Amino acid sequence: MHSGPYIPEVRRRPGKPAESAKGGGKVARTDLDMTEGNIWMHMLHFSIPMAIGLLFQQLYNTVDTLVVGQFVGQHAQAAVGSTGPIINTIVGFCAGLATGASVVISQRYGAHDDEGLGKAVHTTVALTFLISLIATGIGQLIIMPMLRFMQTPDDVINESRLYLSIYFAGISGILFYNLGSGILRAVGDSRRPLIFLVISALLNTVLDLLFVLVFHKGVDGVAYATILSQILSALLILLTLTREKGNYGIRWRKVRIDRHSLSMILKLGLPSSIQAAITSFSNVFVQSYINYFGSACMAGYGVYGKIDAFALIPVQSISMSSTTFVGQNWGAQKIPRAREGVQKAVLMSLVSTTVLGVIVFVLAEPLMGFFSPKQEVIDYGVSFIRIVTPFYIMICFNQIYAGALRGIGDATMPTVIMLASFVAFRQVYLAVTKALGAGFVAVALAYPVGWILCSTLLIIRYARSKLVTYGKAGTNEPAS
Fold it and tell me: Is the pTM of this model over 0.85?
C-alpha cells in the first residue's frame, strides 16, 4: 500500500512563465499554483472573482424575474420563477460532470502531468458536445410532463412552457460556458471567466429591457435574452481557451475522448451529477407544494429563491475555491497544507454567510418590494426569508466539506449524504407535513432540516477522511 496519494509518472514542467508559441516571448500567466504561498491570499484571490462571477450569474434569472414582475405581471413572474427546478435538474446534471472534469484537471495540473492535463481538457470538450445535444432533446421532451407533475396552475402553465422551450433550445450556451470556466478555475484562473460573465450578464439585462419595453414581449422576450447572452459567454471563453498557450488550452484537432480521462471524469463527476439532478428534481416536489397555495405564493417563493441565491454566493465561491485548492495540493502530495486550507475555508464561509444572512433578514421587506409591487407576494417572500435565513450557518459546513472531499477524489459519499438529506429525508418530511395539513411555513422549513442533517453527516465523513487521518497515528489509508 502506498503511503501517499497516487501521483502518475509524469514529465515535470519547469516553474517559469509560459512561453509564446513563436518561442522566446514570455506571456503573463493567468493560472494560479496554490501549492505554494500564503493560503489566505490564495483563497481570497480565487474566491473573490468567483463570488463576483456567481453574482453576475445570478443576474440572469434574477433580472428575468425582476423585469417580468415589474413590467409584465404576477402570472408571468410566477411562470418564470416556477421553471427553476426543471432547468436546474438538467443544467445541474451537466454541471456535475464539469465538476468531475475540473477535479481531474486540477489534480493533473498540481502534479505537473502535462500530457494527462491536455487529454483531460480535450476529453471534457468532446463530452460537452455530446451532452449539449442530449440535454437539448431531453429538455424539450420533459417540459409539459414536468409542469403537469408540479401541478402548475392553468393560468401560469402556458407561459412556463414557452419560457422553457426557448431556454432548452439554447442550453448549449450555459453548458459550454460551464465547461470553459471549469477548465480555467481548475488551474486557478477565476478572473477571465468573471470578465466574460460580467459582459454576458450586462447584455442579458439590456436585452431583457429591450425585448419587454421596446418590443413588448413577455416571458418569451426574457428567455431569448437569457440564451443569447449565455451563448456570447460560451463563445468568449471557448475563444480564450483556443488561444491559450498553456497545456490546458484547446487544440481542436485533438478534441477526442481519452478513455482513461473519461473514466476519471465520470468516476468523480457522475456522483455530483446525480446528486445535483436528483436534488433539483426533489425541488420539483417542493415547488408542487408551493404551487398548491396559488400564484402569489409561487411568485413570492420565486423571488425569495433569487434573494437566497445572492446571500449564499460567498459560501458557494469558497466551496469551489476549496475544491481547487485541495485538488492541487492533493496532487502535489501536500496533505497538511490541503487540510489547513479547508479550515480557513470554513472560517471564511461562516463569517461571510452570517453577515449576509443578518442583512437579508433585516431588509427582507424592502428587498421583496424591489421585485414586486404586490403586497401578497411580498408577504409570502418575507415569511420564507425569515424562516430560512437563521439556518444559513449550516450550509457552510455541508458545502465546504463536500467540496474538500471532492478535491481528494471522494465524490461518492458526499453525493450519498446529500441525496439522503436533500431528497429522501426532505420528501418524507414534506409528505408528513402534508398529511398533517401544515401550511407553507412547514414547507419552507423543509430546507433547514435537510441542511442540518447533511452538515452533521458530512462533518463525520470529513473527520474520517484521508485528508484528516493521513499522517496521524500511522493512518495513511482513506476511511471506508
Answer: no
Measured distance CA(178)–CA(184) in Å, rounded = 10
| Mean pLDDT confidence for 404-419 | 86
Neighbours of 451 (CB within 10 A): 22
Cβ atoms of 366 and 337 within 8 Å: the answer is no
Q: Which three cell numbers stand for residue 424?
A: 429522501
User: Angle 335-362/295-311 helices, nearest 10 degrees?
Assistant: 140
φ and ψ at residue 472, rounded to 5 degrees: -105, 125
Alpha helices in 212-312 (DSSP H): 219-243, 259-291, 295-311
Q: Which three cell numbers stand for residue 159?
A: 407561459
DSSP tally for the chain: helices H, then strands E = 20, 0
Q: How far apart are CA 449 and CA 347, in angstroms?
A: 22
Cα 451 from chain centre: 17
The residue ranking higher by pLDDT, 5 or 296, is 296
Which residues, in sequence order, are bridge partners of residue 19? 26
Least confident of 226-230, 243-247, 271-275, 290-294: 271-275
What the block records as the C-alpha cell of 28 is: 503573463
Q: How many other β-carbons are positioned within 10 Å of the β-carbon of residue 424?
A: 14
Amino acid symbol at 346:
V
Is residue 176 within 8 A of residue 132, CB to CB? The reply is yes
d(CA 136, CA 209): 26
Q: Whose grid coordinates read 465524490?
A: 411
For the cut 70, the answer to whether the pLDDT of residue 473 exceeds it is: no
Pick the closest to residue 476 from 340, 459, 411, 465 (CA basis).
Answer: 465
Task: Please provide the distance, in angstroms rounded to a whole number, between the alpha carbons at the two ends of the chain.
Answer: 15
- In terms of Cβ atoms closer than 10 Å to its own Cβ (0-12, 13-18, 19+), residue 232 is middle
pLDDT at 4 over 90: no
Average pLDDT, the chain: 84
Helix (H, G, I), strand (E, B) or coil at 19: strand
